[in-house]
Amino acid sequence: MLKRLSIAVAGGLLLASAVAGCGGDSDAGSGSGSSGGGDDKITLGFSQVGAESGWRTANTKSIQESAASSGIDLKFSDAQGKQENQIKAIRNFITQRVDVIAFSPVVESGWGTVLKEAKDANIPVILTDRAIDDPDTTLYKTFIGSDFVEEGKKAGEWLVKEYEGKSDTVNIVELQGSPGAAPANDRKSGFADVIKSEPKFKVVASQTGQFTRTDGKAVMETFLKSQPDIDVLYAHNDDMGLGAIEAIEAAGKKPGTDIKIITVDAVKDGMTALADGKINFIVECSPLLGPQLMDLVKKAKAGETIPQRVLTEETTFTPEQAKEALPSRKY
Amino acid sequence: MTTLLRHRLFWPAAVLVVLLASNLIFSNNFFTITLQDGHLYGSLIDILRRSAPLVLVALGMTLVIATGGIDLSVGSVMAISGALACLLIGDLSNPDAVGPVLLVVGAAIALCLVFGLWNGFLVAVLGIQPIIATLILMVAGRGVAQLITGGQILNVRSEPYRVIGAGYFLAVPVSFLIAAAAVALTVALTRRTALGLLLESVGGSPTASRLAGIRSRRITIMVYVFAAAFAGVAGLIYSSDVSSADSNAAGNLIELNAILAVVLGGTALTGGRFSIAGSVLGAVIITTLDITAVSVGVPVETTLLFKAVVVIVLCLAQSATFRAKVFGRFGTRRAEVPA
């Protein structure tokens, strides 16, 4: 009796920790556990990267809200930045026989096996906001998200324009995203493609800031000491840029003036810094793809043909535009 | 010379010196320390400041390991303490008042003490293996932190709170002073009182210690409380440094870094003898390694490999058996296992 009781208690604890581990989910573990292909409500299994930045949080919210408003049963799982968690979540979705699986891949490679399992189970897969690096494009139905190479290019183009007509060398430091992640790879290459046209642009140091504020600050602190001359900082997201701003201020320099800063994302904190003149230029990467995603989910479930690549609508911001856009900024 | 070579902290210290010296090749003002806006500024200061959280966590881990245990939950405890502090400060009517912020800091550390008690209870009273007992809080604790922050990154604007991780007192980084005070406290408690001896005895053999009249259960609970408290302070430093609480990134994998720091410092995972100076040295080495990788410009893809190579070299150098095999003639004396 006692043994059975202790097993029950241990099981309860495990369950509790598993639910708690999912973080800010809406209705992942609870409720319709046995929902499957049978009922008429569409079930969407979504595996999020994590909550590493304000951008990601806005992305999560957009997906949760639009799922609720379009009557889709969302099973949400947070991978906390780890690929193994995400693979586990996708396998779970397959076992639960959800109608559609969508996920935002933590890294680009290593998805072949698990996506093959989904394909064999006849569950359409939609990639959101990050691509995968697999030659077999039949593994997923479509990829909805931003064009990160284009974002990197936009950042580079602004820089080229900003330094037009000047011949002095421009020393650039770069804060990369998580190694192996599509936005990090593509934002780096898009930027590099544009600035290589002019030899005066020199990337003197490029390291990963893991997309987090803490690492952005830490790496920038070291850059400021190891690189005697920094003219421009290019950060792959706002949060790293915001961390770097603190490091630049602690070094007695003025962010935005002594060191020009370009970031990508345009979350509220970043836009505020842009409006304050601490950041010079932000390339938008909109996280609000929920409504578009739910549309695609319905089409995928109905078996309609959908394009292999769907782009989200995006723009860029200067300090003046940031001041205008800030009051209505949702994230 | 040989006594110096045989000192158990010789090899870690040597690696630290080599790391620092290699920085000099790549940036020639690495050792320059200047005064910037009334505080010390330089790469060495960065190392001191940024190693503070790891030193704190490693201190607690040393005590836990000395009793033959291990604490995997320190990273999650860090995340919880930072998350709670930022949440409470966000609710303050005046976040720039020192008094309320101190209260908040106290509350966060108090919560960590409770988690420490929980760990100690599981290990000492229920007799669950430490690795399992603390694994529970490692997994669940991260969830608790996410519940507190609602899965978001919480930003706070509070000058007094910022001082903990990013501020300076008399030109010296506050986080370094906190870590130094913690080291001093631990050294005083373990080396100036009988506590250190009791810890080693519990780590050596809990049963024998109990039979000899030592309340080993109480000692075990105490070290987990210590570890959690230090982890809580580390979490405050971590979140205060960027004035935000990130429940996913805070203290992520720090438990492994802390265990590494303890091992690099020459404390055996089997319990018993421990070295506080060694753990502090180990923590500083790991931080220096991080900074060196960036400063030298190790490509992003190979940073982890670079760290692994340095750690492996250090571990091999510390192994008397390995040295005896490689440097045969020097090693004719009986290989001794480092304590």
Describe the 3D structure:
The complex is a heterodimer of chains A (331) and B (339). Chain A is an alpha/beta fold and 331 residues long. Chain A contains eleven helices and twelve strands. The model of chain A is unreliable at 11-38 (pLDDT under 50). Chain B has 339 residues and is mostly helical. Chain B has a domain at 43-251. Helices cover 69% and strands 5% of the residues of chain B. In chain B, strand 1 (34-36) and strand 2 (39-41) form a beta hairpin.
CATH topology of the largest domain in chain A: Rossmann fold
Structural class, judged by helices and strands of chain A? alpha/beta
The value of Rg of chain B in angstroms is: 21 Å
Number of individual domains of chain A: 2
Biggest β-sheet strands, sense, barrel of chain A: 6 strands, parallel
CATH architecture of the largest domain in chain A: 3-Layer(aba) Sandwich
* Mean pLDDT across every amino acid position of chain A: 86
Which structural class is indicated by helix and strand composition of chain B?
A: mainly alpha
Mean pLDDT of chain B: 90
The N- and C-terminal alpha carbons of chain B lie at a distance of: 20 Å
Query: Unreliable stretches of chain B, pLDDT < 50, 5 or more residues?
Result: none
What does the main sheet of chain B amount to?
Answer: 2 strands, antiparallel
Shape estimate of chain B = globular
What fraction, in percent, of the residue positions of chain B are helical? 55-70%
Fraction of residues in H or I helices of chain A: 40-55%
Strands in their spatial order, largest beta sheet of chain A: 2-1-3-4-5-11
Order of helices and strands of chain A: HEHEHEHEEHEHEHEHEHEHEEH
Largest interface (C-beta under 8 Å): A-B, 49 and 45 residues
Order of helices and strands of chain B: HHEEHHHHEHEEHHHHEHHHH
Sheet with the most strands: spatial strand order of chain B: 1-2
